[in-house]
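Escalation from tier 1.

The customer reports that the assembly of two entities below gives different structure tokens on two consecutive runs. Tier 1 could not reproduce it. I'm attaching the input and our single run for tier 2 to review.
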Amino acid sequence: MTAINTAPSASVDALRAAFGPAIVRHAVSCGDTIVWVERDRSHEILAWLKETPGQAFNYLTDVTAVEYRDAELPFEVVYQLRSLDRKVDLRVKIPLDKSEPLAVDTVTDLWRGADWLEREVYDMFGVTFTGHPDLRRILMWDTYAEGYPLRKDFPLRGNFTRAEQTRQALAANPEAHYSIAELSIADAFSELPEDMRRRLDKGERGELR
Amino acid sequence: MGLTSPDDAAGSVEVAAVSPNFLTTTLDSLVNWGRANSLWPMPFGTACCAIEFMATAAGRFDIARFGMERMSFSPRQADVLICAGRLPFKLAPIIRRIWDQMPQPKWAISMGACASSGGIFDNYAMVQGIDTIIPVDVYVPGCPPRPEGLLYGIMLLQKKIKGESISDKSLRVEHMVDERGFFLPPEVIDELSEPFGNSVHQTRSS
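Tier 1 run:
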């Protein structure tokens, strides 16, 4: 059995040297290094972690958020990074003051895969990602009005009664979930491969253009 | 069944008398016999129950033995909707649309605890029993039910079909969503169900 690594990742010292006070603190948990960074410089720091040769965290494993039951603790947005070349991980957390609107800069320009991950955080926690190209709900439907399900002030069974939830579900248009707009194909129509455009043009889906 | 070959039937009065090439029955039992033994399922598998459903359809259990030779992936050619698995509110309008697209006569089987009552998912995302969305004929309990359980449910449905009568027009009435937007009004749900969930003050509609 290998001993659990308790030493922080070398990235921490490099981050402190490069960004100084913007690195709030760091910790090691179960062998994983966690770095808390300031919200205002988060995009800059994440870009640096991705693009600096010695760091090269070129893979964004996950974006998620945490709201602690302790009201004193800040809300956190979590970025789990991995360097596929160096085979190391780094967890970056951005603490957010709950008295202010929850907003951080998007990282979709750095990792394209952040698109749906950030939409999920927006859907479940209500965090706004500034600069996100398509910030909509992803799991719940667009007209969902009960709030953000993973927030601590959200009741397990939702804010509406079962009867109201059922009524709204029955009134929903099932086509809307799987429309071209939902799949974002319409927006990217001109960028689709030629044969796919031709197929869509003939259109089982009706009016596309 | 009294069918005779042309050779036997030719000019033989005695043979015709003991084995006539017709049979008498009531129209009901003939129609119900046909319907009960050629149910085409519309599989609506959303979760782990669908795995058991697939096992039921596969070689060892083989629901083809019960006349379900063909899975009908088009609701237009389906007779029985089998909801195998939990139904989130996001899917509720879709199962309702599929049910509306199925032609009469049609029946529905709710397979498993989640489809029948919401099961362990007493939360914001899940329909608490598909009978609040579509009418259900047979509930199969289990989490998930074993294939034998589903087969028993199918046999109960066949038994139910064999008891139907074409003179009872109410059996083929389409139960649509009412003007208030409900399939089953909340007062009916509360009347039919006990206090529910984590609190004695909680009902299925609140």
